[in-house]
Structures are given as C-alpha cells and as structure tokens.
Amino acid sequence: MELEEKEKQWERRVQAALKKNRPGDILVLAEEAPVQALRLDAYRKAGKALQEFGQIQFALEQYEKALAIDPTDLESRQQLEILRDLGFRPAAVRGVPPILDKTAEELKAPWVPRRVLLFSGHMIDAPDRPEPRFPPDKEPIAARAMSEKLAQLGAGQEDLGLCGGACGGDLLFAEAVLKLGLPLEIRIPFAEPTFLQKSVTFAGEQWRERYYAVKKNPLTRLLIMPDELGPLPKNANPYERNNVWQLDSALARGPERVNLICLWNGKGGDGPGGTKHMRDEVNKRSGLVYVLDTTKLW
Predict the structure, then answer these.
(1) Residue 29 phi, psi (nearest 5)
(2) What tens digit of pLDDT does each residue of 200-223 get?
(3) What is the pLDDT of residues 143-179, one digit of tens each?
(4) Domains and CATH numbers, the chain
(5) Is the dihedral of CA 266, 270, 271, 273 positive or negative?
(6) I want to staple 23 with a disulfide (CB 3.0 to 4.6 A). Which of 55, 219, 252, 278 is the partner?
C-alpha cells in the first residue's frame, strides 16, 4: 500500500509538471520513479514535453531511454519514427502528437529564452570557516566581475537567469540579472525556513533582507524543490538534486542555449552538489561555461 501511494504521488507530480510546461522537472522525476514502468512512462512524457519546446534531439534521447527499458514499447518507437521522418525540424514537430489531453490554451508554445544564464558559485564564508574562500569583504569584487561578464555576454530581457538563493554568489547573480531586466528563476532545495538557516542567514541578517528583496521582485519566480518534486528520495543528496533540477530545467530550453557562469576557485566543494558538480555536468553537454576564478579575482 505504501508503494501504491508513492506511485500516485509521483504521477500527480509528473502531471503537474506537464501542465506547467516544465520538462526539466519530469527529467528529474523520471530518474526517481518508484518502479521501472513509471520511469518508462516518464521518459515518454518528457519526450513529448520537449517536443513542445522544439528540443527535438533532447526529446529523442528520452524515447531512446524508454526503449532501453522496454525495446518493445510501441509508443516510444512510433515517436522516434515520426521525428526521424520529419527530419528533426523543430517547427514541424511541435505538437506532433498532442500532449495528453491538453486544452488549446495549454498547447500554446511555451516561451523559450534566447539563452539560459545559469549560475553556480560560492556562498559567503561562514564566520568560523577555517580556510577563507569567499570572505565578506570580497563581495564588491565578485559583484563587479558578474556584472562585467553579463555585459560581455550581452545579457538582455530575451534571456533567462537561473540560480539558487544562497548568500554570496547566488544572490549577487540574482541582483545583477534583475538590474538588467531579465526574468529570473530561483530554485532552492529546502522549504524556506530551513533554506534560510542553512544557506542565507549564517552570514548575517542583511542577507535575509537581500533574499526577500530578490524574491519580491516581479521578475522573480521562486521554486521550492520539495513542493515541485516531492520529498527527497532515500539516500539522495538535496544539493545534488537541486543542481540536477536546475541543470535539467536549463537544458530543456535547449542545451545549446545554456551558459553557465561560475564564481569558483577551481577546487572541489565542501560536499556533493557544489560548483564543481554543476561545471562537470554542463561540460558533459553542449553548453558553455564561464569561470570567474576567485584565485585571480582576489
């Protein structure tokens, strides 16, 4: 009975992600499916959602994953044949076939940004950190470096900013993109009270104020991982899961659109889910990585 309830909850989250046009959420949920049959179905749904975004090569990957689970799966094989017959032309395959029973309003093509400016970087050092990494007095240097990089990239309102909400790098990046008028998605791994305690206020109450200022900006959309993806699976690391969630959500807009900006010293982090993990994942794909090297900045 417990497994049956888990399956129902998982199905509800996948359906919610479909209605919200969030194939990145479905990609994460597919890997967390409680049984293999559900994983196969999630890959199919992710493939269809990615078609709506015009991300045909990425959609094909999902159908291939489904067929790796069940080589006799007729629906996935038919989808592959349709896409291949259409020659991977994004304009031709959007909406072929319709996703589930969506209404006309839901079938409108989702907004796809020119680029997704994804960020990962160090938090401000805790007062008791034994080895300095991002001392508080280096904040102006980091903020200036981010603003200069965004200017070099020609960041504008056609782009999407995507980051976490931690003190230091995340919030400096968020403030910089909002100043340029970009829409911003912030994704955090815990409910807000827990997140603020673990990742914001340890560096001072002024960071709480800056977090809420970013959150209240009308260009900001805050997404909380447990609300969107459900409870953390057993033995999973919340920071790694949040990194994968951010990355899959960026890649779903088109791998070639992803620009990762890192504020980083080039070393491994203090644990899983750090900047190195994000850099390594982006490098496996076709995105671009720009490192703001803190060993050279200060």
Answers:
(1) -65, -35
(2) 999 999 999 999 999 999 999 999
(3) 999 999 999 999 999 999 999 999 999 999 999 999 9
(4) 2-93 (1.25.40), 116-297 (3.40.50.450)
(5) negative
(6) 252
Full-model pTM = 0.87
What is the spatial distance between Cα 261 and Cα 120, in angstroms, rounded to a whole number? 7
* Listed residue (48, 22, 15, 9) closest to 221, CA to CA: 22
- The label of the residue with tokens 């999630």 reads 42
Among residues 103, 121, 224, 128, the alpha carbon closest in space to that of 167 is found at: 121
83-95 confidence digits (pLDDT tens): 877 655 444 444 4
